[in-house]
């Protein structure tokens, strides 16, 4: 680095061409000037064709190149916004990326004619010399702000922001003071031409040529002047002549001098004998520049080669080292097959367009030009196709595809049968759309090939207000809650709703909630919470995120391909198979979960007795004459047709086949297959499977072939809502006949509870699922059929339920239950018996207790046990796992496709009843999150990165199951929840709290469409400022509790309405923010 003497150790570190290679010698550009960038590690070079290039770093790698002027570039000056350049008739500022900031020429600004030199005299002020005046140019305003008359022609200019040295074409140098805008000093340098000029602090150095006998020769000295005394100092001797001179920016007494032959001299003015020299491998130099740090030298020779020298490359800086902006590295798109129906087109960026895209054209339009893809063939056609001599033909389904060669009448939007999407924000203004309410519940087709609205796939639309603005009540007028479809594994909604209305199944699931089960993998507990929330929702929609989260993390569910993530527009190529596999998995998992819960207790396993189908499996090996008998318990019966089961004996004499024959043949099944034996031998194994005991609840998966589906649609009596099972030896005989009195001991009667149907879409892989369920009506004592299509719920006539003649309707899973003399009621509160609530009075952390743990809460005691009406204050914080997904149309309008996905991060619950522990938290749990977190929302949640990671967190983390158990207990013990903006908190926590148990301060102080923030309410009501730093859930819950107490006080005094008006009046003046906030 620099020392007090001359600078030793300069060495060349890079050498590159300063201009682009030319196609021929006559068109080769010549470098004309150069400059160091003071902000970034860049070197700028201008050429004779008006181009400017930049080179990055010590390696001088190419960064940018752009056309700046029509004439050769004369001067370059570094600016914090980019590079300022001139060619004598124009002035231009260009960003480092090559984008024009401004470009002004003499045609629009005549005062800029004949620019001879430029220099920066301020941060944004440029001193421009012309043949008639000096111009002060404002870079920000891009205009001349002052013109100072100056009749001398300026050849070179240098400045130190206070003074500017103006070298005339003769042997004069004027010192111009920027502040006073006058020439304050004049020096006669006795040079015929000045070639080098520099000014640092109070020192001016000048070099040039002198005419000797008509020949210009470079002088062997450099003139030095002191601006303070306005007198010359001892000149610097340069034996080889001086063409360029630069003063060191940090050591003004040190000068670097370049000779015409390329020899560079480094000299200290006060110690001339310490001069050092180093050569440049060039015949002559075109430019000579020193970086603003004094650590780098750049020179351009007459061959347009750029040389870069440095004192110490490892410990030197070229500039302030502001980060250089580089182009984004575009990752190559993965290969996607054109046949991949799972890949969405909106994942590929599109250029701006105005015409209708080909993908937006109606699907029924076909193009017959060569090279276009034909429409995919419906797989159901191929299943029924006949191959005759290589020609494949299939019958045309008029019911599914409609009449051929038929012109469809035009239907206007106002007369369209499509139901209008409802948003709460425009519900009052959308009067016409309100007339379409009944259209969404249409369950009869207007034409044979049209699917009724009630059976179509339900999609959630999002307005600018998000999910809260969607009117779910528009699709459900009943007291039974539907399930949202924009969740992972939404196909399971149909099966969950089916079992929800089987009273024996529902009671079993709910009763297990009495047991404390904090296992993160327990679907039994999660399903219990889900059913309890559906019962408490009373017709309001519910989002089963907790259940689906647990299901998605199950390794066996993933192994059997049961996970279907929410991709906005899911298309399942084998939806029927996935649902039936999930039915088997769910029932087996519930049985396993019950076993784990009962380990170490005296409780007996109930689930196998409820849904377990006892079978006897006899295996016989023909050649080895071996026999094996095994008794197994299965939970679903795979039902196939009698022909598929090779059981034609069960068919009736009149040839009519019903579901009873399907079930009968599937209960006694025989199969034969080859079996590999030890030693490399093979045998034939006959397997006979017989159902020896039927459970109270019978779950059946229908495995139907295409021929079976055709038979079912042509047989209106195929579906039977009840049957009788007679015990016959080791098996059963099923019949519709009513049993006699002597057969009652051997007969069990079953009736259907409901079933899941697959509804076909316009395309073969665009189907979805609906559920038909028979629900007891407690008021009339009868049973009514209901249709569940995700969040659409409606009653439906029984004849329509059993109508299987539609091409788009296929049954998949059916549940029958045993008829008893007294109907089994739904026991919604059976969990109250032997309820385990110990988790409220102890800690249960997800990992070992850390020595540095710091608890900010005080556990409840049994003396403080919650009871109906207990007041508790709650606040929850969340983190974002996935951001929102938007779609931007060609008009620029942005629409929300999928809302953000959040996870519970922290929950704080405070005591709200008066007493010595009033306001003291008894729950303050940080929840472990194992998924990748996109945004911690630290300024809103107070959660820092790493707080929720069990391996790195300093917090005492709990599982989601633990904190949910606590909140569920508080809810069912009758506690009243106080908080601010609890609607979204409850939604993300996935808990339904009845209105009578909610005290939301955001609702109490609501007026019009504005919802007041907790921070503003605390300031305006309590005169305190909260949330000054990151949010703290304990502080927020306590503040909401104080605001609620204030609300009760205002209500008692009759001043609430007056106070509410004052709040909104003052809020408008304060923009509904506490003073001092932006």
From TrEMBL:
Cellular localization per UniProt: Cytoplasm
One Pfam family matching this protein: UCH_1
One of the record's GO molecular function terms: metal ion binding
InterPro entries in UniProt: PAN2-PAN3_catalytic_subunit (IPR050785), PAN2_N (IPR048841), PAN2_UCH_dom (IPR028881), Papain-like_cys_pep_sf (IPR038765), Ribonucl_H (IPR013520), RNaseH-like_sf (IPR012337), RNaseH_sf (IPR036397), USP (IPR028889)
Domain named USP: residues: 481-819
Listed CDD domains: PAN2_exo
GO biological process: mRNA processing; nuclear-transcribed mRNA poly(A) tail shortening
Catalyzed chemical reaction(s): Exonucleolytic cleavage of poly(A) to 5'-AMP
Keyword Cytoplasm: yes
Keyword Glycoprotein listed: no
Domain of life per record: Eukaryota
GO terms under cellular component: P-body; PAN complex
Keywords: Cytoplasm, Exonuclease, Hydrolase, Metal-binding, mRNA processing, Nuclease, WD repeat
Major place of residence: cytoplasm
Matches recorded under PANTHER family: DEADENYLATION COMPLEX CATALYTIC SUBUNIT PAN2, PAN2-PAN3 DEADENYLATION COMPLEX CATALYTIC SUBUNIT PAN2
Record's protein name: Cysteine proteinase
Phylogenetic lineage: Eukaryota, Fungi, Dikarya, Ascomycota, Saccharomycotina
